[in-house]
């Protein structure tokens, strides 16, 4: 079983509006992340809220557990810890999914999950890469959960990755936007332009298909 922890607790100070609620067509950034998880064999989805819990929490759905990190100001690892405290004891791995990586796709996540399943315990951390650069989301073996829970809330999660460098599996994906996060209005505008381009390409592909009875 794989659990997904979507981190959506930040203040979005540079954006000046809650990033999880940014619109991409008819969707929000958060609903896109949730859908990517629902389109994969993930046993549970946990969304960690914080700064804008009242607004973002309005998006609650039956398929998702929401938890509020009251100490969100102390750091993102604290939000991860809030999610880890809720994961099932049956979980074999967890996905660390920052909500502001809006152009991550369900297929990117699918490739990571396949790599985890095929590793048979040989690796403990699975990171998507494109052009030699690492991105998000990241899958961690559940055996590392306790290590994260012992960290300070302000410690970067990357410290745990570096500590287990020999247990990292880099998973190549075709999507260069795995490392594109959205922090500012400029970031959002650029990501939205790419999103529309993708959408148009998808529509053209669908239109060009030959459907046989």
Tell me what the structure shows.
The protein is α/β, with parallel strands linked by helices and 213 residues long. It is built from 7 helices and 10 strands. The strands form 2 sheets. Strands 1, 4, 5, 6, 7, 8, 9 and 10 form an 8-stranded mixed β-sheet that branches. The N and C termini lie far apart (38 Å). Mean pLDDT is 89; it is low at 206-213.
Question: Could you outline the blueprint of secondary structure elements for this entry?
Answer:
Layout: E1 2-8, E2 23-24, E3 27-28, H1 29-38, E4 44-49, H2 53-56, E5 64-68, H3 76-84, E6 93-98, H4 106-119, E7 125-130, E8 133-134, E9 138-141, H5 145-149, H6 158-163, E10 168-172, H7 185-208
Parallel strand pairs: 1-4, 1-6, 4-5, 7-10
Antiparallel strand pairs: 2-3, 6-9, 7-8, 7-9
Brief overview, please?
With 213 residues, the protein is α/β, with parallel strands linked by helices. It has helices spanning 29-38, 53-56, 76-84, 106-119, 145-149, 158-163, 185-208, and strands at 2-8, 23-24, 27-28, 44-49, 64-68, 93-98, 125-130, 133-134, 138-141, 168-172.
Query: Got a strand count?
Result: 10
Put simply, the count of helices is 7
Euclidean distance between termini CA atoms = 38 Å
Low-pLDDT residue intervals, each spanning 5 or more residues? 206-213
Secondary structure: helix percent: 25-40%
Q: Report the order of strands and helices.
A: EEEHEHEHEHEEEHHEH
Cα radius of gyration in angstroms: 17 Å
């Amino acid at each position: 079983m794989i659990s997904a922890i979507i981190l959506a607790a930040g203040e979005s100070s540079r954006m000046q509006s809650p990033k999880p609620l940014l619109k991409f067509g008819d969707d929000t950034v958060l609903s896109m992340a949730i859908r990517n998880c629902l389109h994969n064999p993930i046993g549970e989805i946990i969304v960690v809220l914080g700064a804008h819990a009242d607004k973002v929490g309005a998006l609650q759905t039956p398929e998702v557990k929401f938890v509020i990190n009251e100490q969100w100001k102390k750091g993102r690892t604290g939000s991860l810890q809030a999610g880890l405290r809720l994961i099932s004891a049956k979980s074999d791995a967890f996905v660390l999914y920052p909500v502001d990586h809006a152009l991550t796709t369900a297929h990117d996540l699918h490739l990571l999950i396949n790599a985890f399943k095929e590793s048979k315990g040989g690796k403990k951390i699975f990171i998507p890469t494109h052009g030699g650069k690492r991105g998000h989301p990241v899958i961690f073996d559940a055996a590392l959960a306790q290590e994260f829970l012992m960290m300070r809330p302000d410690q970067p999660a990357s410290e745990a990755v570096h500590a287990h460098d020999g247990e990292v599996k880099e998973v190549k994906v075709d999507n260069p936007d795995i490392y594109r996060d959205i922090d500012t209005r400029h970031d959002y505008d650029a990501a939205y332009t790419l999103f529309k381009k993708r959408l148009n390409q998808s529509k053209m592909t669908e239109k060009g298909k030959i459907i046989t009875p």
